[in-house]
Amino acid sequence: xxxxxxxxxxxxxxxxxxxxxxxxxxxxxxxxxxxxxxxxxxxxxxxxxxxxxxxxxxxxxxxxxxxxxxxxxxxxxxxxxxxxxxxxxxxxxxxxxxxxxxxxxxxxxxxxxxxxxxxxxxxxxxxxxxxxxxxxxxxxxxxxxxxxxxxxxxxxxxxxxxxxxxxxxxxxxxxxxxxxxxxxxxxxxxxxxxxxxxxxxxxxxxxxxxxxxxxxxxxxxxxxxxxxxxxxxxxxxxxxxxxxxxxxxxxxxxxxxxxxxxxxxxxxxxxxx
Amino acid sequence: xxxxxxxxxxxxxxxxxxxxxxxxxxxxxxxxxxxxxxxxxxxxxxxxxxxxxxxxxxxxxxxxxxxxxxxxxxxxxxxxxxxxxxxxxxxxxxxxxxxxxxxxxxxxxxxxxxxxxxxxxxxxxxxxxxxxxxxxxxxxxxxxxxxxxxxxxxxxxxxxxxxxxxxxxxxxxxxxxxxxxxxxxxxxxxxxxxxxxxxxxxxxxxxxxxxxxxxxxxxxxxxxxxxxxxxxxxxxxxxxxxxxxxxxxxxxxxxxxxxxxxxxxxxxxxxxxxxxxx
Lengths: 273, 278
What we know:
The complex is a heterodimer of chains A (273) and B (278).
Chain A: H1 6-14, H2 24-27, H3 30-46, H4 50-66, H5 70-94, E1 100-103, E2 112-114, H6 115-141, H7 144-153, H8 159-187, H9 198-203, H10 206-229, H11 247-269
Antiparallel strand pairs in A: 1-2
Chain B: E1 2-10, E2 16-25, E3 30-34, H1 41-47, E4 56-61, E5 64-65, H2 71-74, E6 78-81, H3 94-104, H4 109-123, H5 138-150, E7 156-160, H6 168-183, E8 187-191, H7 195-201, E9 204-209, E10 212-218, H8 219-223, H9 226-230, H10 238-245, H11 259-267, H12 272-277
Parallel strand pairs in B: 3-8, 3-9, 6-7, 7-8
Antiparallel strand pairs in B: 1-2, 1-4, 4-5, 9-10
């Protein structure tokens, strides 16, 4: 097989790419893993202190390690880290309470960094990483088609919606690849993307965005036609595979529910503070 | 014009796509690059205008090492026509689309206008200058893309499957334009899977197989070595194939590439006479 173009390869390692491994996590029922990722997100909102959020984040890392794909997930975590860092830099300046550690402009009380600010901003950074990291782990350990089948069969979501969801994810690498082609085509016409001026930089996106939009619409149309020719939307459909919820799944789900109840209790009673 | 020395290229975390290629393309040559899918043809083409940079060895365009230059600067020397014109069309009129390149180069309004007219004339798009390119046919959109590279006045034309998705006539028309430009002194390098096109237009053929050069010779010699070609899933055009089938008849047909040439060998009536005879 010829090697993938650079963009496709990169994008596939970041988004919605199933990694075929034999691990405990991979063998879990898709629904269990979906519960888990919702659980991670839910907990990240229930807790707002630094240590719990940090622990939650490292639990996601641990799950990725259990799924034997830590190496592949490192770029995801790294990307999220830089995003969180950016977010942190903003956040830390907005929080004025607490003991000032550093004043950016001497004499100006507005721009200062406080101990509480650092604490809260770091917690927020972890929350962001937690929220954004559980889904890539879910998608890397669960095949999209399995996820859709469970969503439709067990959660009774209409197939067309489930299909829309899976298709939008499936198209991300395709569009990244398309974007790469468009960038190359416009660069070949001496188009510059690295302008210093913010306004020209913004407008320099047009030559990329418009062809992408047009080719995407065309692609969607072609896909709709090919789906219809294969009988999409005729009526009730059946599926090739069946998925059973086994004992481990019940156990994990039970554990997840218990921890959520515990977390809610802690929050309501204010035991944590 | 183009000097490639020990060029090696690999995509990030990938196997090498091009391995240790060395060749030179002189100014004014008409070169076809052929090989099966995945042989590295497009990857090699993209080295010529700096869209991809060598991971080993060098590619020099008119003496400039592509690693020390940008695609924007090289675009004035090397024009690149992509397979799919829809990857670049975004402006509301054909004229603006053709003028996008010169505008990027910082040409004056008058200069852009002059170049747009000149390029449109070269590809026969004058009647469509004020039309929306999106509503043109695929062949015409490919011409818009072609004109938009001509307007940057490059010396070298690099064409990646310029006739794909077009009917026979549209394909031939594009290639005839390329041939006319070649006559004016342009260097042309093109990739195609259509061996008849290669036989009809190319002077020199480079056969790529798994990132290496399998053959680099005149069109005639390449197509009369079918064994080497077959190793890379390529088949010579019909006339060379037919002539080689006649080998057993001990008759010397020479090495014709086209119907015209074969007809001339058999009847001794060639060139313009052929047109008359047929």
